[in-house]
From TrEMBL, chains A, B:
Keywords, sorted A to Z: Hydrolase, Magnesium, Metal-binding
Similarity section: Belongs to the HAD-like hydrolase superfamily. CbbY/CbbZ/Gph/YieH family.
Name of the featured protein: Phosphoglycolate phosphatase
EC number: 3.1.3.18
TM annotation in the entry: none
Cofactor(s) listed in the protein's UniProt record: Mg(2+)
Residues annotated as signal peptide: none
Catalytic activity: 2-phosphoglycolate + H2O = glycolate + phosphate
Gene3D superfamilies listed in its UniProt record: HAD superfamily/HAD-like (3.40.50.1000)
Residue numbers binding substrate: 223
Length: 305, 305
């Protein structure tokens, strides 16, 4: 759609799109649920796609939960999925460290929440920081010194609603002074709907601060980086051209799908409205857009007619 | 020095430089004092320059102190200066707001420390936030709402060692949702010597986070922005070509001097060493460099000889 400057078309042939796709990747917030409630018709849509033999994967930049915690959240909302169907940026951070053979004797310093720690734990990677450092302070003043663990070989930064100067300083010193220490960002989202009423600072806020103080560009593992896409394509041996990314954000979800060579479907049930999609300032054009995920049920109605 | 790619020369004719200059602008940390102690010979150097009729101004990106607090710090170290000789980025923030005619019924939300608040107070500008919000929390969860004052017309962000998610969220909501609200950064320094032992995250760290979450570029009033230089040149009616900026940092002090059209003198008594000055990667070349400020005393010895 970019080449000729035309705008993304409304999805009119749901059956055709489903037919062309083996695997659907779904963003979660604004696609599956909104303001803590499942969007009406989503359960039926997922059932239909499974019945048609499609593989379903849920890909979220939210790093505060682990895959297991996400599975429980889905279950609490009446949606049955398996842990293996969820790909969170917390999992991606652990997956990235495994993919580069992160040494067993090295540790990760975490600026973030429980989800990252659970995924590191499951991957057998040692860590410190996180919620435990939430109340720590740096003593200011001449002659003070903050001792850091010389075995920290990576700093993982994600959303952290207990961010403080201690964590910023510890993370910065690790990146700047521990030889070879890498800086991983779960995602760079500016804001997110932690509440349905307002947009609050998201993971990119914590990343933005440490990017400045460390003078280092992070390795981003969440959307729109293609790390997760490559990981999934590789793990499940799926051709990316037979994948469709469904999301509510142009700058993460749709860009992620396009960067990976997938089909892309924007839903208007989250942060992007029709006005911003069609704004002349918008340069990201999905293959199709539709109001909400249950619009795919038209394929079933078409088949039944 | 940039044009021909030549490296900055060592200052050999102190008397000649002093003769060409009416006003000396000094950075403070790493130039006047280091690790909480005045560099030996600095008091004598300042006395000599005053005796020769030179105007002296102290220009610092440190926003945690007001001019009055800096004056007290100088006094505690045995250096007598007047409040009017100090230009801190806390003062620059208040000065900028005055220069644009910030409305009397509007308020400033402060992410920073006491210095900014004292300067706003002295400028008669209403403010909220700052140290008072150091222990506040944002309640997470669906349906939550953080109410912000609709009269906040500017957010000033500087170094804040009590930075937290509450301040980040409050500041972000003001910038994103209060019509016309501006975003002012006292400085963008990545790290600073709050201790002589390590480099810790500085004001740019807090600015970097809110730059991401607000999706807004700040107006920077500290070095290397020329706001303070223009302010000083205007206030004291000094030609910039008769000013010399003396500092220990290439990316703030020397860039600041060059951007303002001043002469520039790098001292090696702070963060920049000879190796980084002469590194092929360095693109910022001062007019001269010398080991430390008291090297200017050579002018006196020369005159006496």
């Amino acid at each position: 759609m970019e080449a000729d400057g035309k705008q993304a078309p409304l999805l009119t042939d749901a059956a055709g799109l489903i037919n062309d796709v083996d695997t659907f990747l779904f963003d979660v917030d604004g696609v599956i649920w909104r303001g803590g409630k499942v969007i009406e018709g989503v359960a039926e849509t997922l059932d239909m796609l499974r019945d048609m033999g499609k593989k379903l994967l849920f890909v979220t930049n939210n790093s505060t939960r682990s895959r297991k915690m996400f599975q429980e959240k889905f279950r609490s909302l009446g949606l049955a999925i398996s842990e293996e169907e969820v790909f969170s940026s917390s999992f991606a951070a652990a997956g990235y460290l495994q993919s580069i053979g992160f040494p067993a004797d090295k540790k990760v310093y975490v600026v973030g929440e429980e989800g990252i720690q659970q995924e590191l734990e499951q991957a057998g990677i040692q860590y410190l920081g996180g919620p435990e450092d939430g109340e720590k302070k740096v003593e200011m003043g001449s002659g003070k010194n903050l001792e850091i663990d010389p075995n920290v070989g990576a700093v993982v930064v994600g959303f952290d609603h207990h961010i403080n100067y201690y964590k910023m300083t510890y993370a910065t010193l690790c990146i700047r002074t521990n030889p070879g220490c890498i800086f991983i960002a779960t995602n760079c989202d500016s804001v997110a709907h932690f509440t349905d009423k307002q947009e609050w600072p998201a993971g990119g806020t914590m990343v933005g601060s440490i990017r400045v103080s460390s003078e280092t560009e992070p390795i981003v593992v969440g959307k729109p980086s293609t790390f997760m896409m490559d990981y999934l394509a590789n793990k499940f041996k799926i051709s990316k051209s037979k994948m469709c990314m469904v999301g509510d954000r142009l700058d993460t979800d749709i860009l992620f799908g396009q960067a990976g060579g997938c089909k892309t479907l924007l839903v208007l049930s989250g942060v992007t409205d029709l006005k911003s999609l069609h704004s002349p300032k918008n340069t990201i054009h999905p293959d199709f857009y539709t109001n909400e995920l249950p619009d795919l049920l038209a394929a079933k109605r078409g088949a039944a007619a």
